[in-house]
Structure formats: structure tokens, C-alpha cells
Amino acid sequence: MSKRSNAVDAMPNAVLVQLRKLGEDLSVARKRRREPLKAWAQRIGVSEPTLVRMEKGDPTVSMAVYATALWLMGRVQAIGNLAAPEHDQGALEDAVRVAKARAVRKRPSLYAGAMAGTDKTAGSGNQLPT
Description:
Layout: H1 6-9, H2 13-32, H3 37-44, H4 48-55, H5 63-72, H6 77-81, H7 89-101, H8 110-116
Helix pairs in contact: 3-4
């Protein structure tokens, strides 16, 4: 018997909820196609008990089983977009944070350089108006 993964024990509740929803949705897809458990399990290449566990959202069922079920219902393209970089909100927020941290240096005032070289004593005609 294989050892249970620590990842399953540490799985956040939000992930479990989404796996349950995925399993339920796959179950609905099978039933809408009027596919019996036995036939669907054979097409996926698993036993009926494994198919039942998948439809309950069991996190110990292989991702390959979920992926094949998605393929059977014509949704295999969705798998490739699950972690697409353009949908990675965490990395986007980090990039924005880094960009904001980069100080945009202000250009010196147009008059700052001219003021530095002027004689500020009275009577000197080199001062710029203030």
C-alpha cells in the first residue's frame, strides 16, 4: 500500500472545496451524457470505485484521472490555462509592488542649475527672477 502524501494532510480547505466542486461537475457531465459509471470508468482507464472517489472530489485521485475526465467532456484545453502566467494574480501584485518600490527620481528643476552658478549678492544682474 502506498504512503499517504503529506500534501493531502496539509491541503487547505479552499482547495478541498474546489476539488469537491470539480468532482460534482464531472459527475453531472457524465450523467448528462447518460454514461453509466462502468463505461465512463473504462473510458478513463480506472475502476468504478476510483471514478466514484473522483466524482466526490477525493484529493488522492490522480490528476491524470481528472484530466482524462475533462478530456472526455471536451474541456482538456482548460487544463493548460489553470496556471497560465497571465492569470497569476500573486505574481502580478508582486510585480506592481516592485515597480512602486523603484523610486522615480525627479529631474532637477530647470532653474536649479542656473541658480547654482549665479551671484546672489545685490546688484548682480545674473540672478533669475523668483
